[in-house]
């Protein structure tokens, strides 16, 4: 047992930490909001959560991954601290999107924007704990997130503003992580623009490469939520979300696995053969598909029962698409560390183009089921492209 936890303890701790966060948000908070808001208001919450996930990963998680990957080259906290402030300062496109497409009310807009920034900073700060293998503090932080959500829900009941449910949770978590990071001397609060040009170039280039791939990958991952409304109507967003919520829950759990994988793979010289990689992916794919289908069915039935009859016809394709997505995300991690970012952007562009075209055609012919199956086909092509990319690199002498 001790050997097991020594080998897999980091993965388990990180999954538990992120799982707690997603459980509180997806299993408790969102279903509660769905029963308390109108269909239009709930659709806006879904879009807001989508933006929140994309922004926090692109800004916070990827800058944190940069901190981990470049630790041997550039370890000055100040360079990364200044960079995240610069990123926040040039986030005008995010502000415009939130204002024009989701919340035109000034208060709602400001609260949503603040929540995005807090969540991004939390993801960035968490990388310092991952770098030092202090995963238990991330777990504790997500416990405090739950406490903050409870306080936020109380504010929502009083004010009628659902954004408080997310905002207070993120705020409490950030306060806790800052306190612990100073107590354990894990993160240096240094905002002086130190470091030479060479060091900044290394960090900025590394982050931009990761951020561009992440923005494309995560934007395309949530592409279905952005285009289903114009194709099939606003009401369908709630139906599709209810069917895909639990499968997205599983997909989100891949993020902490990938975070640990990147940290582990970046520090070791071992390269994996294509045969080992392929067998691993087959196991991941089959397991993910089965688990996604089962959890999607149970999720709709127990959490969004009001949509069950309308959503049950798309549970199978949604589950298969989720399994393919999970396998692709894990494949991307191995490709990213062993091959680099070259080719990943093209793979995801191809996925986006295929899905967009098929979604338009299939939705017009088969409706919601056509939309769901178009995602399956596009995801299958995406995974196949990752396998091909890794196999080509695997034929080099480095991998023999």
Termini gap = 33 Å
Which stretches of 5+ consecutive residues score pLDDT under 50? Answer: 395-400
Please provide the ordered H/E string of secondary-structure elements: HHHHHHHHHHHHHHH
Number of strands: 0
- How many separate domains make up the residues? 2
Shape: globular
Q: Major beta sheet, specifics? A: none
Tally of separate helices: 15
Question: Which class best fits the helix and strand makeup?
Answer: mainly alpha
Q: What integer is the average pLDDT? A: 83
Helix proportion: over 70%
Rg from alpha-carbon coordinates:
21 Å
Q: Tell me the β content.
A: under 5%
What does this structure look like?
The protein is mainly alpha-helical and 400 residues long. The protein has two domains: 1-221, no CATH class; 223-400, no CATH class. It is 85% helix and 0% strand. The chain has 15 helices and no strands. The chain has helices at residues 2-36, 39-69, 77-89, 92-102, 106-131, 135-159, 163-183, 197-221, 223-232, 234-267, 274-303, 308-311, 315-338, 344-366, 368-394. α5 packs parallel to α7 (163-183) and α13 (315-338) runs parallel beside α15. The model is unreliable at 395-400 (pLDDT under 50).
């Amino acid at each position: 047992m001790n050997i097991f936890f020594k080998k897999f303890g980091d993965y388990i701790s990180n999954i538990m930490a992120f799982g707690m966060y997603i459980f509180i948000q997806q299993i408790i908070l969102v279903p509660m909001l769905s029963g308390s808001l109108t269909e239009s208001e709930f659709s806006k919450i879904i879009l807001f959560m989508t933006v929140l996930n994309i922004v926090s990963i692109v800004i916070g998680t990827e800058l944190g991954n940069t901190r981990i990957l470049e630790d041997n080259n550039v370890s000055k906290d100040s360079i990364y601290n200044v960079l995240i402030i610069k990123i926040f300062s040039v986030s005008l496109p995010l502000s415009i999107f939130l204002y024009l497409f989701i919340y035109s009310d000034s208060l709602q807009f400001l609260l949503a924007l603040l929540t995005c920034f807090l969540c991004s900073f939390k993801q960035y700060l968490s990388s310092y704990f991952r770098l030092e293998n202090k995963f238990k503090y991330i777990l504790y932080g997500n416990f405090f997130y739950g406490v903050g959500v409870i306080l936020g829900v109380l504010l929502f009941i009083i004010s009628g503003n659902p954004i408080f449910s997310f905002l207070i949770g993120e705020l409490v978590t950030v306060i806790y992580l800052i306190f612990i990071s100073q107590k354990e001397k894990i993160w240096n609060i240094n905002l002086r623009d130190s470091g030479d040009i060479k060091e900044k170039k290394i960090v900025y280039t590394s982050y931009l490469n990761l951020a561009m791939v992440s923005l494309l990958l995560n934007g395309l991952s949530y592409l279905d939520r952005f285009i289903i409304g114009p194709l099939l109507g606003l009401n369908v967003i709630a139906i599709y979300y209810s069917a895909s919520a639990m499968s997205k829950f599983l997909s989100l759990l891949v993020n902490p696995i990938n975070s640990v994988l990147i940290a582990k793979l970046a520090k070791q010289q071992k390269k994996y053969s294509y045969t080992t990689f392929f067998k691993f992916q087959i196991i991941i794919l089959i397991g993910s598909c089965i688990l996604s289908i089962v959890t999607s069915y149970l999720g709709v039935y127990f959490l969004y029962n009001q949509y069950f009859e309308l959503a049950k016809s798309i549970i199978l394709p949604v589950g298969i698409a989720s399994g393919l997505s999970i396998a692709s995300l894990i494949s991307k991690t191995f490709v990213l560390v062993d091959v680099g970012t070259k080719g990943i952007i093209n793979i995801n562009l191809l996925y986006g183009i295929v899905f967009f075209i098929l979604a338009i055609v299939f939705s017009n012919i088969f409706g919601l089921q056509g939309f769901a199956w178009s995602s399956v086909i596009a995801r299958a092509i995406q995974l196949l492209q990752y396998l091909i990319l890794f196999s080509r690199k695997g034929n080099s002498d480095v991998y023999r």
